[in-house]
Amino acid sequence: MQQAMTNSEINTRFIFVTGGVTSSLGKGIISASLAKLLQARGYRVTIQKLDPYINIDPGTLNPYEHGECYVTEDGAETDLDLGHYERFLNTPTSQANNVTTGKIYQAVIEKERRGDYLGETVQVIPHITDEIKHRILLLGENNHYDFVITEIGGTVGDIESLPYIETIRQLKWELGTRSLVIHLTLIPYLAAAKELKTKPTQHSVKTMLEYGVHPDILVCRTEKPLNDGIRSKIALFCNVDASSVIESIDTNSIYKVPLLMKEEQLDRVVLKKTRAPALRAPRMKRWEQFIKKLESPKTVVNIGLIGKYVELVDSYKSIIESLIHAGTINNCRVDLRLIHSEHIGQENMEEKLRGISGVIVAPGFGDRGIDGKIAAITYVRKHNIPFFGICLGMQCAMVEFARNVLSLPDAHSTEMHPETPHPVIDIMEEQKKVHKKGGTMRLGAYPCALKNPSRAFTIYGQTNISERHRHRYELNNHYLELFEKSGLKATWINPESQLAEIVELEDHPWFIGVQFHPEYKSTVDTPHPLFIDFVRVSSMI
Ligand code: GLN
User: Mutual orientation of helices 228-238 and 199-210 as an angle, nearest 10°?
Assistant: First the structure.
């Protein structure tokens, strides 16, 4: 049996990112930015998110809770921060990159039931903390990465993040200079006093110290630049050197943060503190070019995104970022109009879509807002407005076409109407016997092969692709011939199951529905071809 490596045999360095004062300071973006800079220096880096909630994964969470659920190649339903990691690093993450308290407890309780603890009392320390430790160190196994960056969800001081902070305390002790803690805090600006205030940061660091963890680097989120006086004050009160006080100033694009962190030398401080060999200066040319294009668009295109969670933009994070990538490549700024699917219908469609050059109908589950989506598809189909249907968006397009072109007025998806006489969208065969909700959909990457000559073939430029999925329902092949005769064709299919993966309408400027989620694969370095072409064609309308 292969022996597990001991800590001293692992060269990987472990960086922990915690948050203080308030949530939403952008730990995910800081983690991804640091990772980007280290990667640009030639290091192998991965990022992990530890979420303190008790759900096993965010798959069963309503998007209003934590935003979209991001799906990895290997089919993990994860926190949306993993999307940022992939978009910044251009390397895939996996199951191991997102761990929740639910997963930790599940593993420990399973071991206890198996008798693995040999009669011991099972406790938070050491059993839960050991399990957390194991999940962190796992990514360092075989020295596959030079750096593992672990972001701890929540805010220091929360009851639920305590076991994670305690684990960091233990690991810092065990790993010595091969680990460090970056604490992200807020330096609020009080307009009345015209002053930046350091007290919340002092208190937040004090809380960390009470738990036995001394942050090595403070990244200070601020709306005004930090002057030397403020930096020295923070350094003095928080036991760090002034070069470890890093300013993270508000900016209009998350993609500028790596460059801001480079200016602040966050990566250099990390290398110095972890005594990592400096390989080379970060090569950020491509990234800089991307920012340049992002900042100087030549045209503007108005895209409408129709969904039922539009009150919270995080619900559609990956789609929104994919449009930014695609716009940038097309030298064009995408102005996105989020349209609530419950607030549209035939009567106000023209007004709601006025000035819009392309429409995306979003993924989703359940009946709420479905009629608005279908009505919008009728409109864009008839008015030759580019249409991009993603997952549920594609399924709605099939229902719309069946009702209005194939003259099957009762057609529906069995998800919304189990008794429909025309189930053009039906539950997948292998899903029929599934009753549990968590992690049971068709998830992750599946191959997809060209079936008919198509626009998507021109777009992809290849005949075999792989895309990520998250669904239970599919196009009912029983109706396929009928659809195809009238011009709505399944142009790409899964080679094994014959499931339709891409559908396209003939004689329309751009009408494509995809059963998968292309938005999960768009990154700054490789924007997704379908989004690029959708934006390109929409910008010409
Ligand atoms: N609710 C649909 C299904 O399960 C679509 C899912 C989605 O849009 N991700 O098939």
Answer: 20
Separation between Cα atoms, residue 468 and residue 122, nearest integer Å: 38
| Cα angle, residue 174 at apex, residues 169 and 178 outer, rounded to 5° | 95
Q: What atom in ligand 1 is closest to the CA of residue 473?
A: 10
Give CA torsion, residues 151, 152, 156, 160, to 10 deg: 170
User: Would you state the pLDDT for residue 183?
Assistant: 98
Question: Residue 394 Cα, ligand 1 centroid: separation in angstroms?
Answer: 9
Cα(531) to centroid(ligand 1), Å? 20
Does position 526 have pLDDT exceeding 60, yes or no? yes
pLDDT tens-digit profile of 128-178? 999 999 999 999 988 899 999 999 999 999 999 999 999 999 999 999 999
Angle between helices 317-329 and 81-89 (to 10 degrees): 20
Check residue 400 and give its pLDDT.
98
Mean pLDDT of 355-377: 97
> Residue 435 — pLDDT band, cuts 50, 70, 90?
confident
As a whole number of angstroms, the longest Cα–Cα distance in the chain is: 75
In sequence order, which ranges of 353-391 are alpha helices (DSSP H)? Answer: 370-382
Yes or no: say if 79 and 70 are a contact pair by the CB < 8 Å rule. yes
Count of beta carbons in the 10 Å neighbourhood of residue 265:
14
383 is catalytic: no
Of 427, 444, 443, the closest CA to residue 435 belongs to 427
Name the amino acid, one letter, at 30.
Answer: I
The token pair at 149 is: 């960056």
Measured between alpha carbons, how far apart are the two ends of the chain, in Å? 63
Ligand 1 atom 1, closest CA: 365
Radius of gyration of the chain (CA): 25
> pLDDT class for 2, splitting at 50, 70, 90?
very low
